[in-house]
Specification:
InterPro entries: Methyltransf_16, METTL22, SAM-dependent_MTases_sf. Residues 61-86 are annotated as: Disordered. The protein is of the alpha/beta class and 393 residues long. The protein has a domain at 171-391: Vaccinia Virus protein VP39 (Rossmann fold). It has 14 helices and 12 strands. It has helices at residues 6-10, 22-25, 55-77, 80-102, 119-125, 146-150, 177-188, 190-193, 207-213, 226-238, 240-243, 274-283, 296-312, 339-352; strands at 32-37, 43-50, 157-162, 197-200, 218-223, 250-254, 284-290, 317-324, 328-330, 335-337, 359-366, 382-391. A 7-stranded mixed beta sheet has the order 6-5-4-7-8-12-11, with helices on both faces. Strands 1-2-3 form a 3-stranded antiparallel beta sheet. The chain has a two-stranded antiparallel sheet with strand order 9-10. Helix 7 runs parallel beside helix 9 and helix 13 packs parallel to helix 14 (339-352). It starts with 5 loop residues before the first helix and ends with a strand. 28% of the residues are buried.
Length: 393
Amino acid sequence: MVDVTEEEMDNPTFKSDTVLSDVHLHCPDQRHLMVRLNAVGQPVFLSYFKLLWNAEDLASEKHGRETATEREQQYRSGDEPYDTDRNNLKEEKELKIEGVEALLDDDGDLEVIRRPRSASDIEAEGVLRDRVHPVILMKGEEDAFEVEEQEGTCSDVVKIEHTMATPLEDVGKQVWRAAFLLADYILFKRDTFNCCSVLELGGGTGITSIIMATVAKRVYCTDVGEDLLAMCEKNVALNKQLVEPGGGEVKVKTLDWLKDEFCTDPEAPYSWSEEEIADLHDHCTVIMAADVFYDDDLTDALFRTLYRITHNLRNSCTVYLALEKRLNFTLRHMDVTCEAYSHFRNTLNDLENLQDRKMKYTVEPIKPDFCQFLIYERIEQLELWKIIAEQLT
């Protein structure tokens, strides 16, 4: 028998080996390619995210969602279309049964058609078969994107390297829905961000910074971890066809919220130069972060970083924070709660109520009813907040 103290029962701890983003779990892309292993041995994939630039793309995507919703409602209500689909399904099953019977030999045994061993066998027998196994483009660092470059570039696709499932400390290597929500808002409000200088905190794979750089002048995309920053830098290079036409620029830099100063060590990868720090302080008018509020200590560190940086800026700035309110059942409350979100809201309120003679922070929510330029599920738990950091002196 194991003795469990009362304190241990009141503070249970559950650990999960891996975390998987819903963007990858329900990825709308047909192409999902493994390209390499990163420095810590994690498989790295390349995904294509289509931008719905024109009205036809938007209408087609909207029609698809409305059709799916309508069919779901019909299924639930038991309307006639459901009966029609059910009859069609029955006919398909009957055809499949007939096909199976046709494959039986004289003794009633099933004849199995073997998969051809080579491409020549396929051509010889006239058998067409789709490849369903993962496609590995290239191993190693050199010429990792040679295959993709042969296919050309286009202005309506964002190509992002990412991992599929990671430990909690590596979640920045995945793409999250809140990043898409913030990217949608940037594309919807292009004029607001035109020619701005922008700082992103917790940039991860860099997708939001890349979208921002299509309209902004310069974006400092920051995070921690050399392997993550290298992935981010590679994604910036993959999408230069989106950024360069508008004269935008993405600079990938390290920024640790748990430290009070920028890393200026020239020997450290992705460190800051004194000129870059001065440029940030003199010209930055927008700060943004997406889906970085999942740990209370990190949330506190981010708000301390926001406070410090906004105090050092020459101009007032606007901060955009996107997040997904994730619900969890806890034994402590015996109910479904959202403790990380609650802590975020409390910290946000503390910032707004802060008595400061130099800065005034005004917080307001942004209703997520703007156009959708990326294909993902915009669930009701997604939120976008705007903080106006106004210089008083």
